Amino acid sequence: MNKYLLEIGVEELPARYVDFGLNQLREKISEGLDEHNIRYGNIRTLATPRRLTIIIEDIAETEKDEKLEIKGPTVKISYDADGNPTKPLLGFMKSQGITEEDLEIKEVKGNEYIFGNIFKKGRSTKEYIQEEIGDLIRKVHFPKNMRWGGKNIRFARPIRWVMSIWNNEVIPFDFEGIPVGNVTRGHRFLGSSTITLSDVDSYEKVLEENYVIVDQVKRKEKIKYESARMAKSLGGEIKDDPDLLDELTYIVEYPTPIVGNIKEEYLNLPPDVITTPMREHLRYIPIYNSTGNLMPYFITIRNGNDEYADIVAEGNEKVLGARLEDAKFFFEEDLKVSLEERVDALKGIIFQEQLGTLKDKTKRIRELVEKVGLVLEVAEETVEAVDRAAFLSKSDLTTNMVQEFTELQGEMGEVYALKSGEEKIVAQAIREQYLPAYADDDLPESTTGTILSLSDKLDSITGLFAIGLKPTGSQDPFALRRAAIGIIHMINKHKWDLPLDTILDYSLYIYVQQKGLAFNYTEVKNNILEFFMARIKQMLLDENIPYDIVDAILATKTYDILELFEKSEGVRRWLAEHDTKDFIDGYTRLANLAVKYEDGMKLKDELLKEKDEIDLYHKFNKITLELDQKINQKEFIEALDLFNTLTPLIHNFFDHVMVLTEDVNLRNTRLALLHMIDLKMKRIMDINKLVQND
């Protein structure tokens, strides 16, 4: 079967761009083949920092032939009285390149039309490649693109060569003077700069002979396996670090792990102070002993073979040593000033120009954590701990260590707090305030840390919305979506009854008191609630809650986050386990009539005279108290069971009772009854949003 290989050779791509570009390239090529009816099998994607490669297996030799049926003018206007083609028909045939032999008559909605049958022979796939592949490459875009050498092509880095091979044959195409052929390049320093490839099947083997492992999966496994083996030989182990492993995979073409040593004097530093420059700045792999403590070794991944490994290790040791010497100096200097003594220095750090300094933010957070603590009715010692943590929460941002290694904010706050004699729970909360830092990150464990983290994030969301800096489209420079999702996850984890609208009022009121800041309170509040509801809706959909149930729950305008999630799952389970047609039909009809209720209509039970309305009224009264208890206790399945006991009574009511009677008082009483039941159901959901499956 046929194979086609496309390799785009570039200057070294940033690691984060490689998968991004490769996936786009595969998508564009796949879409192009599908659009032009070219059959193909598996599409393999291979990549290094210097090349993006696509290998298409079992690709057909031609586009699929097409038979098209094109609708033309009506028969009435297509022929004259003598049966000769008229101008409309002649124009249609000319535009489609067909003759009368290709025409047929078909009836469409009672009218006869002319249809033209067109046969379109497919191009050869080689022709398609020559004419289309260049444009498909141009469609690949990166977060930042560049132009070079006066060319019109935009790409993440300059493209230096392109290989285009069909089995063992070059398929050239014009690409603004960039060479397109069967010539590739090996490792920048160890391989040949000119490698002529004879066929697709030899591609990976030839490149590996030139110190390029083009398969990123093989490179990753080589790094992981050899690093683990090397650590084990030293009596240690490496921890799973997917982000670092991915980055290492995409910054080398021929990975070789090499061990380096860490001076014992640096091991007295906090572990994060050592590993942060290793991982984040130098991309070294730390080695740990069986108890999880750092060992005096690291692994660096060389882009090449193991020649002169000792010299390479020595060079990397010097680089790390210089970094750790700086860290040691920063750490010792920072310890000379306690976190409490640093609080005033926050006056000199702007949080946001309109929202003030970090000292201002600290003051707002202290007020907000107090309010949240009162709502949650936490213990007095927790109130005191979270106030202290809030007071010190941003102090580590003034330290040399955090200013040098910003990734350590919070982490160093915990270390310095403990060194300053703060309680462990306070120190832990200072670290946990930044959790979760990214999708799927850990959530704060302590109540103190969770209250602080939630309040910090809510303060940022409230303030930035108040000054009009809310996320738009894909733009979210302050990561407010992530902050909102973090708040939702924290509330659900701790199962807190913490209504969003309540704590939002607290946060907004704190800003109202801040001098020099004016905003429309109601508008900002509604915008923030809508922002949170959009996050909640997507999270519920991600949990496989059907969209109509999500809409039915959110339509009740309840802002108790925990209740929304528990209610959605409860309703989903109840509907899945019951035959709900009668239930939904009955309550939907009830809801549709209840909208005719107007303020002032009163239920006068003495006016009820029909057996079915009396039965419904008495049964509803009988279960009302229990219904409220079940809903208040978030026992939604049991509440729906109670609602379902009304289902036959509701149907009997509609079968035998005229609601919109001419007797105004009786009509108002019946509408009031329906309104009462509908209001109770809306404590769970808006039944009109549910979609019944046939």
Q: Can you walk through the features of this model?
A:
This protein is α+β, with helices and mostly antiparallel strands and 694 residues long. 49% of the residues lie in helices and 13% in strands. The chain contains 25 helices and 16 strands. The strands form five sheets. Strands 1, 2, 3, 7, 8 and 9 form a six-stranded mixed β-sheet that branches. The chain has a three-stranded antiparallel β-sheet with strand order 4-6-5, with helices on one face. Strands 12-14-13 form a three-stranded antiparallel β-sheet. α11 crosses α14 (424-432) and α17 runs antiparallel to α18 (521-542). The mean pLDDT is 94.
Q: Give the N-to-C terminal Cα separation.
A: 47 Å
Rounded average pLDDT: 94
Q: Report the portion of residues in β strands.
A: 5-15%
Radius of gyration: 35 Å
Indicate the overall shape: flat
Low-confidence stretches: none
The biggest beta sheet is recorded as: 6 strands, mixed
Total count of helical runs of at least 4 residues:
25
